[in-house]
């Protein structure tokens, strides 16, 4: 839990701990969920998702399958992708690398894995219910609904300043440059997989992106590696507004009692669907697909909405969240579709060009020598 | 006993079903091939579109070539929803700009100027459809074509081809089934006249020998005609037999009645002298009866042979001489009749039935001997325009020309003829007719009366 603790405390501390974090990079954190009855199988989940978020889902799954022990390995996205891709390339030689279920918020990684033939196909009643944009090839299934939101400190942002759209945000930064200079935070998209994914889709979704990034550059945008750091900065009052934060993590902080507000933008809402696949090298294949079916089932979705990720596609927004009545409100939903389009995000020429332009607009120097850290 | 062959219906339907099956097979193969082409054509457009969209973004600032594959290109490819996508972009010097380094699709720059090149290839063990699109980069370090290679697995294509083929197959199969049903109905309808014939024949009694009188299609008209012809012959035959039996019964009954009466008389007669006379009369009657019976049997035999025996070459000259000699030997020598033969010594051969001919001739000679000839009886053999003439001539009174037609019929002998005299001429007439010839009579004031059998010599058969 070292990485996550570091994120949760302070960036200063994070900097101090950086060598340590770098030293443990790639060494994932393991949580064991033992079977309550006689153990029949061990299901190994390798995931880039917060173990605290996933725990309610895993425990509920074990209510249905009490004879399954779940071993949960938590990674940062890039490490997970590297390991699974290497295991897939090694094929049979990687038999001693147990991975029955792979979960990642960097859906583009999973799409790339499936495109390279590293995933098993699965058809069931549950998979058949999924909308086209939430699944690909019966191999990669999106199972969460996590909007990109604007988080803010209610005491630092007066109600009349509260931006409900990107245009309003750009306008606010133009109207009150002094008030918010250095008080806006977002991802360092050169480090954060989700930050890059959201930014790429912002650029694709609207012409406002260029103006937004320029405004951020003028307002001296504070960039962080991960959602946890940004939430910590908000709580500490170092920033007043965080842009494009992962809604599920922000809402978890709100539930925890943090003094944070959350706005779902009304112009358009990017919605990430964290995805799951079963690799070709999986051993407990049947249980793996049973877990996938559970995640997609009404029961799993209910637990996800209430205890893990808090949002769903069609229901009302959670209590205390400002925004449209629901994510599905006509025209504003911009789902990051689980499909081959994400291969464009994976393209390295595109990425290099996009990051260069972003750096130039933000006014950031060349990539910092700090630890390369990504969102779990 | 009729051998039971396989059913005509089954054979026809089997052959047509085979033809239909082969046709359907060929159609299905054609449908599959064209469905594959159609599917390729449809999805090739998406592939080319995506490659061109990527190629569009290739740019050069004079030092470096850059590319920025657009989302839209991948969205276009995503229209075939399940297919994997592999791509790479290489600069004019074949340096990889982006994409999958291991995508081993050959780039033939000579052909790129003409437009995107489509080809089938294999990548990581999967069959893929690939397109290579070029974009000319003039201001790079090395000017030339940068190339975009986009490859896609064939799932959507196969799926579409399969769906199209299945639809076409259903139609072909439905058509085939329909055609087979129509064939079965048509064949059954075509064979119905045969069934009608069978029904008519089966419903007939043994004596109903009239023609079938069925309207028959051209193909089996010959069969119906043959049956009708056969029926006609059978019916004629049966009529002759009936008449013969009736006549014969009548002819035999009369002398038998007379014989019976004479025997009654004889049994009551006491006078020895008259008993002897009556015995003599009974003997004579019995002899006549035997002669009559012989002739009846001969007549039946001749009629039977005429309709059933195949002809062999017969030397009628030799036959005439032998028959004459036999006949003369059988006659009682109570009259001085000059018997003679006139004709060639060498063989005169015609196709015929020797036994029937001898019987005919023998009857004519007996008739002449018994009823005609006073002093002279001559058998003549001659030729006349493709015919052979056998004539029996005598110097008797002959038959009046008014009776010539009547005496050819059995039991209608010339007036005054006794018992047993009624069949000879009719037998001869029958034999002549059976040989395709005729019997005629001639009267010459100087030579007398002659009965002539005129028979074809078979030379022009």
Describe the structure.
The complex is a heterodimer of chains A (376) and B (461). Chain A has 376 residues and is of the alpha/beta class. Chain A has two domains: 2-143 and 275-308, D-Maltodextrin-Binding Protein, domain 2 (3-Layer(aba) Sandwich); 147-271 and 318-362, D-Maltodextrin-Binding Protein, domain 2. Helix content of chain A is 44%, strand content 16%. Chain A is built from 16 helices and 14 strands. In chain A, the strands form two sheets. In chain A, strands 1-3-2-4-13-6-5 form a seven-stranded mixed sheet, sandwiched between helices. In chain A, strands 7, 8, 9, 10, 11, 12 and 14 form a seven-stranded mixed sheet that branches. In chain A, strand 2, helix 3 (51-64) and strand 3 (68-74) form a beta-alpha-beta unit. The longest helix of chain A is centred in the C-terminal third of the chain and has 15 residues, at 348-362. In chain A, 50% of the residues are buried. In chain B, helix 1 (8-56) packs antiparallel against helix 4 (155-190), helix 7 runs parallel beside helix 11 and helix 8 crosses helix 9. In chain B, 28% of the residues are buried. Chain B starts with 7 loop residues before the first helix and ends in a 5-residue tail after the last strand. Chain B has eleven helices and 14 strands. Chain B folds into three domains: 8-162, Beta-Lactamase; 206-308, Helix Hairpins; 310-461, Histidine kinase-like ATPase, C-terminal domain (Heat Shock Protein 90, 2-Layer Sandwich), CATH 3.30.565.10. By secondary structure, chain B is α+β, with helices and mostly antiparallel strands. Mean pLDDT of chain B is 85; it is low at 414-420. In chain B, the strands form four sheets. In chain B, strands 4-3-7-6-5 form a five-stranded antiparallel sheet. Chain B has helices spanning 8-56, 71-77, 109-112, 155-190, 192-202, 218-268, 272-308, 316-330, 354-372, 404-407, 424-434; strands spanning 59-60, 65-66, 85-90, 96-99, 117-123, 126-137, 144-153, 312-315, 338-342, 349-352, 376-384, 387-394, 438-444, 448-456.
């Amino acid at each position: 839990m070292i990485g996550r603790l570091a994120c949760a405390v302070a960036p200063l501390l994070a900097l101090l701990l950086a060598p340590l974090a770098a030293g443990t990079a790639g060494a994932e954190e393991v949580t064991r969920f033992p079977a309550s009855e006689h153990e029949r199988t061990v299901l190994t989940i390798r995931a880039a998702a917060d173990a605290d978020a996933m725990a309610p889902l895993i425990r509920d799954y074990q209510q249905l399958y009490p004879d399954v022990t779940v071993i949960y390995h938590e990674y940062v996205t890039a490490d997970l992708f590297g390991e699974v891709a290497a295991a897939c390339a090694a094929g049979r030689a990687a038999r001693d690398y147990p991975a029955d279920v792979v979960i990642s918020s960097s859906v583009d990684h999973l799409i790339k894995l499936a495109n390279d033939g590293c995933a098993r196909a699965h058809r069931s009643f549950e998979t058949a219910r999924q909308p086209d944009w939430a699944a690909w090839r019966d191999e990669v299934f999106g199972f969460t609904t996590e909007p990109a939101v604007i988080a803010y400190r209610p005491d630092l942002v007066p109600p009349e300043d509260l931006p409900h759209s990107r245009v309003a945000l750009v306008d606010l930064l133009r109207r009150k440059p002094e008030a918010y200079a250095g008080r806006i935070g977002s991802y360092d998209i050169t480090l954060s997989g989700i930050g890059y994914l959201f930014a790429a889709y912002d650029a694709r979704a609207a012409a406002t992106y260029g103006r937004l990034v320029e405004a951020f550059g003028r307002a001296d945008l504070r960039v962080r590696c991960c959602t946890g750091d940004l939430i910590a900065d908000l709580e500490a009052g170092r920033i007043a507004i965080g842009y494009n934060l992962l809604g599920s993590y922000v809402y978890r902080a709100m539930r925890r009692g943090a003094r944070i507000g959350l706005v779902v933008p009304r112009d358009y809402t990017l919605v990430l669907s964290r995805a799951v696949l079963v690799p070709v090298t999986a051993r407990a294949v049947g249980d793996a697909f049973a877990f996938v079916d559970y995640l997609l089932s009404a029961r799993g979705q209910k637990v996800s909405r209430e205890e893990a990720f808090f949002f769903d596609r069609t229901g009302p927004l959670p209590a205390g969240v400002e925004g449209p009545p629901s994510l599905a409100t006509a025209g504003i939903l911009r789902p990051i579709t689980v499909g081959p389009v994400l291969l464009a995000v994976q393209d390295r020429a595109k990425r290099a060009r996009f990051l260069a332009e972003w750096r130039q607009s933000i006014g950031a120097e060349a990539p910092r020598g700090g630890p390369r850290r990504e969102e779990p | 006993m009729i051998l039971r062959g396989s059913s005509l219906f089954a054979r026809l339907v089997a052959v047509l079903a085979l033809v239909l099956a082969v046709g359907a097979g060929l159609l299905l193969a054609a449908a599959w091939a064209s469905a594959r082409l159609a599917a390729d054509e449809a999805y090739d457009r998406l592939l080319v579109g995506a490659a061109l969209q990527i190629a569009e973004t290739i740019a050069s600032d004079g030092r470096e070539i850059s590319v920025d594959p657009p989302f839209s290109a991948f969205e276009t490819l995503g229209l075939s929803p399940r297919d994997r996508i592999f791509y790479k972009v290489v600069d004019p010097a074949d340096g990889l700009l982006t994409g999958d380094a291991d995508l081993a699709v050959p780039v033939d720059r000579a052909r790129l100027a003409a437009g995107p090149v489509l080809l089938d290839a294999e990548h990581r063990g999967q069959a893929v459809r690939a397109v290579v699109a070029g974009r000319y980069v003039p201001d790079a370090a090395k000017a030339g074509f940068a190339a975009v290679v986009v490859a896609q697995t064939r799932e959507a294509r196969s799926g579409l081809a399969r769906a199209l083929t299945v639809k076409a197959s259903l139609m072909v199969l439905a058509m085939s089934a329909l055609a087979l049903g129509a064939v079965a109905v048509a064949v059954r309808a075509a064979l119905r006249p045969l069934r009608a014939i069978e029904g008519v024949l089966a419903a007939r009694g043994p004596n109903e020998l009239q023609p079938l009188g069925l309207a028959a299609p051209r193909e089996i008209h010959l069969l119906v005609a043959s049956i009708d012809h056969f029926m006609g012959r059978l019916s004629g035959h049966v009529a002759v037999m009936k008449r013969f039996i009736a006549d014969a019964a009548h002819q035999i009954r009369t002398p038998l009645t007379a014989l019976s009466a004479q025997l009654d008389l004889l049994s009551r007669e006491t006078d020895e002298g008259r008993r002897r006379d009556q015995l003599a009369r009974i003997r004579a009657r019995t002899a006549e009866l035997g002669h009559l019976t012989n002739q009846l049997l001969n007549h039946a035999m001749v009629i039977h042979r005429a309709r059933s025996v195949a002809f062999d070459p017969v030397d009628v000259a030799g036959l005439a001489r032998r028959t004459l000699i036999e006949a003369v030997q059988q006659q009682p020598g109570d009259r001085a009749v000059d018997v003679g033969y006139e004709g060639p010594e060498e063989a005169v051969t015609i196709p015929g039935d020797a036994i029937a001919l001898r019987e005919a001739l023998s009857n004519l000679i007996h008739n002449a001997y018994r009823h005609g000839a006073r002093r002279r009886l001559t058998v003549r053999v001659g030729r006349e325009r493709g015919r052979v003439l056998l004539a029996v001539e005598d110097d008797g009174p002959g038959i009046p020309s008014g009776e010539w037609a009547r005496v050819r019929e059995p039991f209608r002998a010339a007036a005054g003829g006794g018992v047993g005299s009624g069949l000879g001429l009719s037998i001869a007439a029958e034999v002549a007719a059976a040989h395709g010839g005729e019997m005629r009579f001639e009267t010459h004031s100087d030579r007398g009366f002659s009965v002539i059998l005129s028979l074809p010599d078979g030379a022009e058969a």
